[in-house]
Amino acid sequence: MQRIIYIAFDQLNVAAGAMLIADKANDHIVLVESQRMLTTRRWHKQRLLFLLSSARHFAKELTDAGWNVTYLKSATTIDGLREIKQKYPDSEVLCATPNSFELKKSLTDFGATFVANDFFLTSADLFSIWASGQKTFTMENFYRAQRKRLAILMDGTEPVGGAWNFDADNRLPPPKVHDWGKPSYFKFDEIDDQVISELPSGAWGKIDGKTWGTSRTEALAQMANFFKNHFKEFGPYEDSMPGESWSAHHSLLSPYLNNGLLLASEVVEAALTRFAQGDIPISSCEGFIRQIIGWREYINGMYWYLGEDYRENNQLKADRKLLPLFHDPAKTEMNCVRSVVSDIEDRGWTHHIPRLMVLSNLALVTGVSPQEYLDWMREVFIDAADWVMVPNVIGMATHADGGVLMTKPYAAGGAYISKMGQFCKSCKYDPKKRTGDDACPYTTLYWDFLDRHAETFATNHRMFQQMGGLRRLSNLAEVKVRAAQVLHGLDSGQI
Ligand code: SF4
Question: Quick check: pTM over 0.85?
Fold first, then answer.
């Protein structure tokens, strides 16, 4: 009997998920473009283009390969499936287990049957076994277990290179002169142009060129470009924020991994094959492998393990409205923030350090509502799947879970951004100053943040040093006055 095989927009791969059990002769492949998904948020234009065009390309490739495919536009995903079910009332609806709580619930209520989701290397059950045996959810412990379980970069029972982690080698600031190369750019085709013409008028951001590929072929080209031109220097500079390159030596593969155009297994295999050629330092290879088999799997595992209500956490009671600068870089004179938000406006992407130490650090020390910040991150990043953003924002970025995921908040003054980036020299603020009109807002607000939460952090041994620094601060009263001015200025878009 014919079955309906539903393919979600983040499972676009013939070699994984429900496509693995599909039968070309009998089954009906269905993709649904949900109008609600398109219009209920102020999405970045490039995020919509990427997701919709990738799905339309995938549907076309399947059709060209002889599959029986229906691509529907409906009010909601479930409305689309209802419509197809009316046509084939006796057909069972199958799909790979969805990647979000919301879609999983609506498909469960609809009566869909789930097959294994192998877009990740670690099933939710396997992760749960690991997590339930831990006192603290330290990613490094999970990562080491992954290395052993998957036998990746292992020399028997020992890690290749003699260490599990080469982070100490991977913290170089941007050099004064360096060839960062160029990321790949792609050409819009007819499908892309059609999607662009249909984008909702309220969408945010710009489309000035095609940064993100929208087909498997383009995703593979992006991967090839990384391994050929950037892999070698990825590690040492992975945390640096050079002024003259928005991508540094990052792979730019997360969007494709997150919508299924690339599989984690093939990216890992390609990295190990390239490493075997002998000219890639272990620090680059290990750092990259950790992102894929460590961080990515850990965050996805924690998303399911911590449950649906985890996103509502607000343990620091942060209730400030989203700062205007997050949607309009002209609303700030902080050079780092203006530059990073402009990058996001241009491409929907910036690497993990600007995300954590510029954007999230600002949301944290200003006390922006974690839920408002989460919504913004989901809307503007090209790779912002729900499972990525919920643990990253609630746990890591805003410390809103009270330390479940990370034992201490990622709050920092201007010194870190000054060391790892090239923004401060041309900024009107001074990263070393915490008071005065030219004090760096991060530096002022860092101390103000520690003081506001002094009671909470007093019992956190990992905050011992920072709290000692606060106690020794000679001019806290003055800092608090400046902090109030800075917060007011940020709220009104004038700092
Ligand atoms: Fe950012 Fe402060 Fe440096 Fe200005 S001085 S670029 S606000 S860190």
Answer: yes
Count Cβ atoms within 10 A of the Cβ of residue 136 and give its class: 0-12 exposed, 13-18 middle, 19 or more buried: exposed
Angle ∠(355,100,103) on CA atoms, nearest 5: 140
In tens, the pLDDT along 154-170 reads: 999 999 999 999 988 88
Q: Per-residue pLDDT tens for 197-207?
A: 999 999 999 99
Residue 440 in contact with ligand 1 by CB distance below 6 A: yes
Number of residues that make up the chain: 495
By the 8 A CB rule, do 171 and 165 touch?
Answer: no
Pocket test for ligand 1, best of 332, 357, 418 (most atoms within 8 A of CB): 418
3-state secondary structure of 228: helix
Q: What is the distance between the alpha carbons of residues 364 and 301, in angstroms, rounded to a whole number?
A: 24
Q: How confident is the model at residue 2 (pLDDT cuts 50, 70, 90)?
A: confident
Pocket test for ligand 1, best of 356, 366, 427 (most atoms within 8 A of CB): 427
- What element of type H or E holds 252? none
In this structure, the number of other CB atoms found within 10 A of the CB of residue 124 comes to 14
Angle between helices 77-87 and 101-110 (to 10 degrees): 30
